[in-house]
Amino acid sequence: MNRQVVYLDNAASTPIDPEVLDAMLPWLQGIASAGNPSSIHSVGRAARSAIDLARESVADLISADFSEITFTSGGTEADNLAILGSANAEKRGRSQVATTAIEHHAVLNAVHLLEDRGWTVNTVQSDRTGHIPYSEWGTAISEQTAIVACMHANNELGTMQDIRAVVQAASKVNATVHVDAVQSLPWVDLNVRTLDFDLCAISAHKIYGPKGIGALYIKQGCSVFPLLVGGSQEREKRAGTENVAAIVGFGAAARLLKGRRAEDAKRVALLRDRLIQRMSNTLSGLRIHGGEPMLPNIVNFAIVGVEGPTLLMNLDREGICASSGAACSSGSIEPSHVLRALGCSSTQAASGVRLSLGRTTTIEEVDHVVDTLQRIVERLQSRG
Ligand SMILES: Cc1ncc(COP(=O)(O)O)c(C=O)c1O
Questions:
Q1: By residue range, what is the domain housing residue 205?
Q2: 222 labelled catalytic
């Protein structure tokens, strides 16, 4: 791969930290890699201990109890398990779910499956800055609401929701609250005790751990039926032989994150501010999407008259990795549902570009990206 790459797509995925890789390697080679945590012999018991340690570390990161962490194949499965698993466990005969228009597709498509099964979905709208006004929850939640699903931070914009307000609204009718914290975990202290929701999805590859491993926090006493059945792994919440190396990597990434998150967030916020400031000074037709409260690392923007994919392709040619919320399907650009929810037109919603900084981003990279953007935008704008 080109050594000159400037990677500003950390909200999509982060590189594996060398310490995480070191922790994983012993579980990917030799006899240790054979260890099945369900086996009672020494090799199996060693794998079980490694998983226990990782579970302890992940639980500690979010102030949960060891027994409240269920490992999954990632954030997507954790979101699916939360929503479909608690719908399947619903005993009160309720059949409504409340969620937001700006959720990740892992939540939106799980909720659509419930809709196909006859559930009613009440979708709360975002304001123009990417936040859900508290009053919206009042109308979306009723005595029939079984589940309320709200993301902590949005993956396209970085905007953060007031989870305490969501829990407060849901508790009036005793609805189960699921929080997708996949994007906030790398930057924000997430304490499940003080926030007091029931379920929470997190993912390792956003915190410098491996892909294909995540977890669902399930508060003690909250009932969730498994999506995968078979053996009794993960206290019968998720059958299948555990991916020991990936779980170990998740644990190592969680320990590392705990020690450095506050510092990283402070440093990256300064870089983000510099990025926005310099972009505002140099790019004509710049529009920044979203507004505080926000994660420290995401800048979502559009340049009037410049298509997002064209800008992304030009950045990529210059070795700069960024992304867009707009998906390409069947050769045409699907506008971002998040930008649409903010009131952007289809054209505007297809023009959004996301720069997401990470713990390794430098001031030189930020300045280089702005200089390159200025050159590209001037060239594209001069072509009319
Ligand atoms: C907010 C949010 N939820 C869920 C997911 C899915 O996580 P995973 O990639 O681990 O399946 C993502 C991934 O980008 C995300 O940003």
A1: 18-257
A2: no
Query: Contact at 8 Å (CB) between 177 and 148?
Result: yes
Residue closest to 286 by CA, chosen among 297, 270, 300: 300
304 domain-assigned: yes
The two three-digit tokens of residue 220, written as one number: 């003690």
User: In whole angstroms, what separates CA 349 from the centre of its chain?
Assistant: 20
Q: What CATH number does residue 291 fall under?
A: 3.90.1150.10
Angle, alpha carbons 239-28-68 (nearest 5°): 35
SS3 373: helix
Cβ–Cβ < 8 Å for 159, 130:
yes
pLDDT, position 350: 87
Residue 74 Cβ inside 6 Å of ligand 1? The answer reads yes
The response to whether residue 242 sits with its C-beta less than 6 Å from ligand 1 reads no
Alpha-carbon gap, residue 257 to 321, rounded angstroms: 23
Amino acid 383: pLDDT: 81
Same domain, 93 and 226: yes
pTM of the predicted structure, to 2 decimals: 0.97
Ligand 1, atom 4: closest residue by C-alpha: 75
262 Cα to the center of ligand 1, angstroms: 22
Q: What pLDDT digit, counting tens, does each position of 32-90 carry?
A: 999 999 999 999 999 999 999 999 999 999 999 999 999 999 999 999 999 999 999 99
| Residues 246, 210 contacting (CB under 8 angstroms) | yes
Residue recorded with tokens 């990283």: 264
Name the strand (E) or helix (H) holding 374: helix 363-382
Q: Is the CB of 155 under 6 A from ligand 1?
A: yes
From 213, 230, 257, the end of a domain falls on 257
Per DSSP, the three-state class of 365 is helix
Question: What is the predicted pLDDT for the residue at 4?
Answer: 83
Q: How many domains does the chain have?
A: 2
Residue with tokens 């304490």: 191
What CATH number is attached to the domain comprising 168?
Answer: 3.40.640.10
- 328 alpha carbon, distance to own chain's centre: 20
Of 257, 276, 306, the residue that ends a domain is 257
Taking the alpha carbons of 26, 27, 30, 31 in that order, is the dihedral positive or negative?
Answer: positive
Give pLDDT < 70 ranges for the chain: 1-3, 326-332, 384
Same domain, 185 and 316: no
Give me 49's structure tokens. 């201990």
- Domain assignment present for 1: no
